[in-house]
């Protein structure tokens, strides 16, 4: 996996820029033969892999949270439906009791009138 040696040379303009300019343009080498560019590419690849792992982790966490919330929403919807049915039954019962009370009040009033007439 050794990268080919890369040298950066500028066109010779006839001027001697000294060894510093040439040294800056040449790739630096280590004992293993890696250039500074290959180390940079390797570091970039490692960073990209770390970002992929981080992204995959984030997607997994979001997916789990989504399904938890979806389940909770379904349970709340079911509970809401049950409470709505219970409310309707209580409302019907209340209406029936109100009618029965009104009927009993009418019967009582009629009974009292009949009693007073006697």
UniProtKB/TrEMBL annotation:
Organism's domain of life?
Answer: Eukaryota
For this UniProt record, give its keywords in alphabetical order, as a comma-separated list.
Answer: Coiled coil, Membrane, Transmembrane, Transmembrane helix
User: Which Gene3D superfamilies does the record cross-reference, listed alphabetically?
Assistant: 1.20.5.400
Q: Which residues form a coiled coil?
A: 73-114
The residue ranges flagged as biased composition, category Basic and acidic residues, are 14-32
> Which residues lie within the region annotated Disordered?
1-34
Task: Give the transmembrane region(s).
Answer: 49-69
* Protein name in the entry: C-type lectin domain family 4 member E-like isoform X1
């Amino acid at each position: 996996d050794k990268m080919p040696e890369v040298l950066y040379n500028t066109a010779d303009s006839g001027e001697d820029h000294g060894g510093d300019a040439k040294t800056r343009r040449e790739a630096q080498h280590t004992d293993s033969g890696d250039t500074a560019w290959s180390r940079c590419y390797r570091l970039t690849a490692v960073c990209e892999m770390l970002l992929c792992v981080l992204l995959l982790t984030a997607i997994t966490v979001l997916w789990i949270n989504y399904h938890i919330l979806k389940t909770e929403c379904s349970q709340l919807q079911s509970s809401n439906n049950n409470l709505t049915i219970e409310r309707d039954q209580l409302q019907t019962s209340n209406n029936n009791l109100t009618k029965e009370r009104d009927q009993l009040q009418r019967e009582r009033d009629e009974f009292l009138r009949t009693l007073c007439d006697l």
